[in-house]
Amino acid sequence: MRSRWRAMLPLMMIVWLGGFLTGAHADPESLRLLRLALRGPSAAFEGIQQTEVAVGDRIASATVRIRGDGKGAILREYSGASAYQLLQIGHQVWKRQGTDAWQPLPVTADRDTDRAAAMIEANYRILVGKPETRLGRRTIPIQIVPRQSCNPSRRLWLDPQTGLLLEDRLFAPDGRLRSATTFTALTLRPQPATLFQPPARQLPENAVGPFSFRPAASAEAVERETGFSVPRPAYVPAGYRPTLYGVMTTGSGRHTPAVRYSDGLSAFTIYQRGRGPGGGGRGFGRGAGWQNRLRSDVQQSIVEVQRGQRSYLLIGDLAESELQKIADSLP
After folding, report:
1. CA distances for 177 relative to 182, 189, 303, 317, angstroms
2. Which of 218, 217, 242, 195 is closest to 94 using CA atoms?
3. What is the C-alpha to C-alpha distance for residues 316 and 318, in angstroms, rounded to an integer?
4. What is the per-residue pLDDT across 70-80, written as a single tens digit (0 to 9) for each?
5. Smallest Cα–Cα separation from 168: which of 189, 142, 187?
6. Contact of 168 with 69, CB cutoff 8 Å
7. What CA–CA distances, in Å, run from 301 to 1, 129, 130, 288, 319?
């Protein structure tokens, strides 16, 4: 399940200095453009995209047919030997391989785009460039530059008339490309509503670990359901704050708390695992002296750590050194 979760992350990331303007705070027009970009397309469309995703030490490429209703629903159809579909409705995303049933993916985006834009403004520089023409449409380049070197960056080419991102490039904190998506063809026209029917929202059968994450209304709701307090690290990088609480199912079938922190663009999630009084999920028979285990790639960093009778899993897209500090500060 862990390898399946890691393989999903690059799929869920469907997100030039010359001539850019700078400033301590974004001007109102820059912030307006950023909000447009985060809200998504406001016009029905269909098109073709070329995508690149870093997988290990290589870049995987694919051609994607993409269609949207302009109301928050988007269908992506990936071609190739391992063809699959992604259906997005708002911030919920499902994946389907061939004619298999739709499987929901964990929610990763901030549901409140205005809040995300305000957080990005506080923690990043928003650099707006001179208009460019892409596919016959006027686009505005936007670069999101971190104020802290531990955070990722992003470059967007926004069509302000439709909210479409004609190009979207995401970079790791060290500057390596994580993903790139570019429209190569685009037509604005209505799409059949039948393309965007939401599947049943149940979790995959026997889902455990991060893949079983269910959002909750509040920290208090999580604590009532699980009987555990929400993880609260003593160290949190500047600009990050809790934006989503949830519940995870462990390998032993227990429900445990999870919390996601974000600074608007970057995020990390802390999952409490199956070890605890009277418990002990699969693979948690280690003693209290078990040390942090860190592994990372261009897409993400992962830390596993045990603190007394509690075991945690941390997953984030910020620098691994920062994720390690967060793990070290857990009670």
Report:
1. 14, 32, 22, 13
2. 195
3. 6
4. 999 999 999 87
5. 142
6. no
7. 17, 32, 35, 23, 7
> Cα–Cα distance between 60 and 260 in angstroms, integer?
28
pTM: 0.83
Full 3-state SS string of the chain: CHHHHHHHHHHHCCCCCCCCCCCCCCCHHHHHHHHHHHHCCCCCEEEEEEEEEEECCEEEEEEEEEEECCCCEEEEEECCCCCEEEEEECCEEEEEECCCCCEEECCCCCCCHHHHHHHHHHHEEEEECCCEEECCEEEEEEEEEECCCCCCEEEEEEECCCCEEEEEEEECCCCCEEEEEEEEEEECCCCCHHHHCCCCCCCCCCCCEEEEEEEECCHHHHHHHHCCCCCCCCCCCCCCEEEEEEEEECCCCCEEEEEEEECCCCEEEEEECCCCCCCCCCCCCCCCCCCCEEEECCCCEEEEEEECCEEEEEEECCCHHHHHHHHHCCC
- Extract the tokens encoding 199: 């599947």
Tell me how crowded residue 215 is: count the other CB atoms within 10 A of its CB: 17
Q: How do residues 165-224 score in pLDDT, each as one tens digit?
A: 999 999 999 999 999 999 999 999 999 999 999 887 666 667 788 888 888 999 999 999
- What count of residues does the chain have? 331
Quote the CA–CA distance of 94 and 204 in Å, as a whole number.
11
